[in-house]
Structure formats: structure tokens, C-alpha cells
């Protein structure tokens, strides 16, 4: 029972991580959260390395371990393949989905940069 709960909690943490990857940069638009952009840079860098290098996410490792300990099986192909591809978006649009995510990140960082520059100008 505890391992099953751990697997589910890890799945929720995975979704939260991906949600933060997509929209976390927009949090930095708020003056109080402006410095959070650096956490977002690290999260995006980690996500890009998983996609480009193909390394396994530690959350996937934890979820698979908990699933096995609970008597289940590993995720078939990883978190995104299991929970998102062909569920949230069609698998044949994986590249387009990644481009939309990259665009959202880019817009969030551009907005952060403009707001930070405006804030520096007004502070002078």
C-alpha cells in the first residue's frame, strides 16, 4: 500500500514538474517571484537534457521502483510515453508539442527579461 502511494505521489510530482517546466517562467513576471526564473532555467535545462541526451529522469526511476515494490510493472517507455503521448496529444505531434512548449518557455523568458529591464530602468 505504501509503495503504491509513493508511486502515485511520484506521478503527481512528475506532472507538477512538467507543468512548472511549461508555465513556470510566467511566475517570474510577478515582482515578488522575479528571481524564480533561475530555478526555471535549471528545470528547462534538465528537461532539454532528458529530451536531447535521453537520460532517465530520477522521478521515473523512483516511480518504477515504487511500482515494482508494490507488485506492479515499470512504466512502458517512461512518464511522458505513459501519461501524455496519445492521451493528452497524439503521438504523431510530439515534435509540434515540444515546439509549443519551447515557445511558451521562450515567451515567458522574453517577458521576464522585458519586465526586469523595465524595473531596472525605473529604479535609476
Total number of strands:
0
- Percentage of residues assigned to helices: over 70%
Question: How far is it from the N-terminal to the C-terminal residue, by CA?
Answer: 59 Å
The Rg value, from CA coordinates, equals 17 Å
**Global mean pLDDT:** 93
Structural class call reads mainly alpha
How many DSSP helices?
A: 5
Q: Which ranges are low-confidence, i.e. pLDDT below 50, for 5 or more consecutive residues?
A: none
> Largest sheet, if any?
none
The number of domains: 1
Please provide the ordered H/E string of secondary-structure elements: HHHHH
- What shape does the CA trace take? elongated
Please state roughly what percent of the residues sit in beta strands, choosing from under 5%, 5-15%, 15-25%, 25-35%, 35-45% or over 45%.
Answer: under 5%
Question: What would a concise description of this structure say?
Answer:
The protein is mainly α and 124 residues long. Helices cover 73% and strands 0% of the residues.
Secondary-structure blueprint:
Elements: H1 2-27, H2 37-53, H3 58-69, H4 79-83, H5 94-123
Helix pairs in contact: 1-2, 1-3, 1-5
What does this structure look like?
This protein is mainly α and 124 residues long. It has one domain (2-123). Helix content is 73%, strand content 0%. The chain has helices spanning 2-27, 37-53, 58-69, 79-83, 94-123. The termini are far apart. The mean pLDDT is 93.
Task: Describe this protein with a few key phrases.
124 residues; elongated; 5 helices; mainly alpha; 73% helix; 0% strand; single chain
Amino acid at each position: 500500500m505504501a509503495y503504491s502511494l509513493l508511486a502515485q505521489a511520484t506521478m503527481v510530482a512528475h506532472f507538477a514538474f512538467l507543468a512548472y517546466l511549461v508555465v513556470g517562467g510566467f511566475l517570474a513576471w510577478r515582482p515578488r517571484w522575479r528571481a524564480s526564473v533561475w530555478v526555471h532555467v535549471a528545470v528547462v535545462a534538465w528537461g532539454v537534457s532528458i529530451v536531447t541526451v535521453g537520460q532517465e529522469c530520477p522521478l521515473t526511476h523512483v516511480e518504477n521502483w515504487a511500482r515494482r515494490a508494490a507488485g506492479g510493472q515499470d512504466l512502458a517507455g517512461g512518464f511522458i510515453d505513459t501519461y501524455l503521448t496519445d492521451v493528452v496529444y497524439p503521438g504523431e505531434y510530439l515534435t509540434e508539442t515540444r515546439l509549443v512548449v519551447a515557445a511558451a518557455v521562450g515567451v515567458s523568458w522574453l517577458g521576464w527579461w522585458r519586465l526586469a529591464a523595465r524595473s531596472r530602468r525605473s529604479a535609476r
